[in-house]
Amino acid sequence: MTKAVESLFGQYGETDPYALYRRLREHGPVHWDPWMRTWIVLDHEEITRLSKDPRLSGARIEQFYEQLPDEARTGLATLKNALEPMMLFTEPPRHTRLRQLLRPGLTPRFVKEVREVIADRVESLLDAAAARGGMDVIADFSEPLTRDVIGQLAGVPDRGAHLLESWQGLLHEFFTQSRREVPRVTALRGLFDEGAQARRDGTGTDLFTRMVSGQLARDDYTEDEVFANFVLLIDAGQATTTHLIGNAVLALLEHPDQQRLLRSRPELAANAAHEFLRYDSSVQFTSRVALEDLEIAGHHVERGQSVALVLGAGNRDPKRYTDPDRLDVTRKAHDQLSFGHGIHYCLGASLALAEIEIAVSRLLERFASIELLDDAPVWLESINFRFLRRLRIGVR
Q: What is the pTM of this model?
């Protein structure tokens, strides 16, 4: 078994995990990490292949939960119950069935319709930034944008809007054994249960009811399953997209040549959205569990062992991308790994891309100059999530 020369934990609190990935890659594309007790995979081609390998399972919530001490399990039961039935953490045939629950509401036709909603909200947020002469890109722009869009999509009523504010990635909270979000999830479940009958009989007028009522009539989904994927819609559509936008703006601030190019060629905005995702994804890796013994790049992986597919490393793989550490808004990066691959490819990818494209392009169109006001970006301390705590900019 080849051990990693450094642990993936080495990126905890670091501002540049990509330097760690480069050092690890010098010793091969696959390593055993003794601290995380997982295999780490850095290669774009291997990640793509393994994402479709049925011998690796994404159903890891129950396994992690059962390994915890009794006291921790009791405190985290609420988060576990909200995460375990998510399609993200299930495998066929259950995954196929759960994915169908939300699919009708995230079609290209729907995203085309919602672009106007996104654009209107972006304009109002930029109006406020113009009046102040600046903003925190996270707190004043990307977070309220994604919160309001996903709030409408999920059908969260105005009286429950506060439950979506400053949303934390629930997976991060669960795996760090944090209980901070338990009251929020509990309150959200209470609000959700109030509309259960209207969803079941199709009389609800919110977008989420319109999205799922047909499937509820055709299949026997439990309320726990419906709630978990309601939360997934919020969690993935808000936390990760909030920080994808923040990371994209930071990338342009750090690469003024690419900012100038995008200003001069706004038609590149849709293409650039994929490059922003490749360059600095808000989610750095996803984990799988081996259902049987298998080989990965010449390494023997035992049944039950964990495998971390390091999306952030695959997105910077020099065998796949020329000069991968350089931001290039003209690069064709539609095979970037930030939305996953295979059956777990993000169902809301087209919505996230639309939000990134519109938010960034309108920011550059609206202001002739944007400048970083912080001495250095402030990041969430996490081994997986590239979340900016704040990104203060001046605009004019």
A: 0.92
